[in-house]
Design brief:
Helix 2 crosses helix 6 (117-132) and helix 15 runs parallel beside helix 16. By secondary structure, this protein is of the alpha/beta class. The relative contact order is 0.09. The strands form two sheets. Strands 5, 6, 7, 8, 9, 10, 11, 12 and 13 form a nine-stranded mixed β-sheet that branches. Strands 2-3-1-4 form a four-stranded antiparallel β-sheet. It has helices at 3-10, 46-61, 65-75, 80-95, 97-107, 117-132, 137-151, 154-167, 172-180, 186-193, 198-210, 218-225, 243-247, 271-275, 283-294, 315-326, 338-348, 396-399, 402-422, 442-451, 460-465, 498-501, and strands at 231-235, 251-252, 259-262, 278-280, 305-308, 330-334, 356-359, 375-381, 423-433, 455-457, 478-480, 489-495, 507-513.
């Protein structure tokens, strides 16, 4: 035995009686594996594998989890219990990515960006199990190490094991306390605590104030944004039926008529959903479509031509088309992108085909150069930041930037101006976004009022309340027409909220064009 070996052996803290060296520092408490090497799993748990595959598609291919997850659940033949676990694990890891990355960074001795992407995805899944799910730490560690060993490699599995052990030493609350201890800015603290980008926290604060709500609701809003949303279904009026949904465990919707909540697993197994007569659609989206369809037009005016200016992927268009068919009206569903136009056509196929058509124009071209106004009701569901649907699209919060909002406002203004040129005098335009950000909502409408002297804002809250089942929704922002004094309010908007209405944060303002006034000499 050489000198170094003799010295190590003479210190009994380094070798056991059999002469095996312990790979740890002096006096360090040993972290035992939950399983002996010969007993460690070499295969992946199907539910965790499914979640891992979805995260890989989201981070590696810019995919959307809500589109990938159902397919992976079916491909991996998950039962109802495993499908529920995979869903919670997937969406939870995506929603809480900001917090988990902050925790992981304290447990890794290099920037997270330098880690291989599959390893980082696995660490996020492990962190969610350890900090936010009722999964025993030993089970989370063993399963994630096994998954990484089988899907990435033996070397990375050791890193994952070491990092997740460090994560497991503190609870979620203890990690949040550590990460926010030296931060005095409330928005920064909330961004970490509730795992939202800081700019979105500030935007939500501004949005609450702009829409007449108490800024003290901010934390409740952020918490609601992290809740797992219930699947909302709608039966197309006169076409669909919810009987099968109820038989499979669905519940009657409480916000709008003809709707249901479904928590019994994959909606793809519902025959009516596969046939397109029952559709997945947030109750807020259902409500704004119904409000546009039901708002009263001037007596004697036509009500036969409807337009969905930005129809893709077809959710609101299918509901509007079904309502139009019941009233002998005709819907034009416009979507400029061909692949999305195909989705619109698929969504409309359950509606009698003599009640609709799909066009592929740039929405800003409607009404341009025309001498006759064509439409009685127009839906402008403008492309937006999607800040109102972050609970359903959790990966979106990490993809969006404040610059995206600024770029979209020009498009939103152009689309609304086009609709106002295409609507008949006395007709109605619904300006809708799935965002509460004032730059995408009230500011767009206020600018349109300044440019259009004949534009009048309707009582949007009254229109919405006429089609919902629950307690009345309070009016949001109030507008004055360009010709009115500041005290002569002519209409309002509505802003729905996840924490207050249990819907996506849908915004809507209903507008009409009055006859031009003539002045006498």
């Amino acid at each position: 035995m050489n000198y170094d070996g003799a010295a190590r052996h003479s210190n009994s803290s380094r070798r056991d009686a059999a002469g095996r060296e312990r790979n740890r520092g002096f006096g360090e408490k040993r972290q035992y594996s939950a399983a002996a090497p010969s007993q460690r799993k070499r295969s992946s748990d199907p539910a965790r594998l499914t979640a891992f595959q979805v995260l890989r598609a989201v981070s590696g291919e810019d995919a959307y989890a809500n589109l990938v997850l159902p397919r992976k659940i079916r491909e991996n033949h998950l039962n109802k219990l495993d499908a529920g676990f995979a869903t919670e694990l997937t969406y939870g890891a995506l929603r809480e990515q900001g917090l988990y990355d902050a925790v992981l960074q304290t447990c890794v001795d290099r920037p997270l960006a330098s880690l291989d992407a599959p390893v980082l995805d696995a660490l996020r899944l492990g962190a969610h199990q350890l900090l936010s799910m009722r999964v025993p730490a030993h089970a989370a560690l063993d399963e994630m190490v096994s998954l990484v060993r089988s899907q990435v490699g033996t070397g990375p599995s050791g890193l994952v094991n070491a990092v997740l052990r460090k994560v497991s030493l503190k609870s979620r609350e203890e990690w949040v306390e550590q990460l926010t201890a030296d931060i005095s800015d409330d928005s920064q603290v909330m961004a970490i605590t509730h795992s939202h980008p800081e700019w979105i926290v500030r935007a939500f604060r501004q949005s609450l104030v702009a829409h007449g709500r108490d800024v003290a609701e901010l934390e409740e809003l952020l918490e609601a944004d992290n809740d797992a949303p219930v699947v909302n279904l709608v039966a197309l009026p006169g076409i669909g039926d919810l009987g099968e949904v109820y038989e499979l465990g669905g519940r009657k919707g409480k916000f709008v008529p003809g709707s249901a909540y479904y928590e019994a697993g994959d909606v793809g197994r519902i025959n009516a959903v596969r046939a397109g007569t029952v559709r997945v659609q947030d109750a807020g989206s259902q409500a704004v479509a119904r409000a546009l369809a039901e708002v009263e037009l001037p007596s004697g005016s036509s009500d036969s031509e409807w337009l969905d200016l930005c129809a893709g992927p077809g959710g609101k268009a299918s509901l509007l088309a079904a309502l139009a068919a019941q009233r002998d009206a005709f819907l034009t569903a416009n979507e400029p992108q061909s692949h999305r136009a195909d989705l619109v056509e698929d969504a409309l196929n359950a509606v009698p085909q003599d009640a609709w058509q799909v066009t592929e124009m740039d929405g800003r071209d409607y009404g341009q150069g025309q001498t006759e106004r064509l439409f009685d009701r127009i839906m402008v569901d403008a492309p937006c930041s999607g800040l109102g649907a972050l609970r359903r699209r959790p990966e979106a919060r990490w993809r969006k930037t404040l610059a995206d909002v600024a770029e979209l406002t020009t498009l939103q203004s152009g689309l609304l101006d086009s609709a106002l040129k295409a609507v008949r005098v006395g007709g109605v335009v619904a300006y809708v976004t799935c965002s509460p950000h004032p730059a995408e909502t009230v500011a767009i409408v206020e600018d349109a009022i300044k440019r259009n002297p004949q534009l009048r804002v309707l009582d949007t809250a009254a229109a919405l309340n006429s089609v919902i089942l629950t307690a009345p929704v309070a009016p949001g922002h109030q507008y004055s027409s360009a010709a009115a004094s500041a005290s002569e309010w002519s209409g309002n908007s509505i802003q729905l909220w996840p924490h207050a209405n249990k819907t996506d944060a849908m915004f809507m303002t209903l507008l009409t064009i009055d006859e031009p006034t003539t002045s006498e000499d």
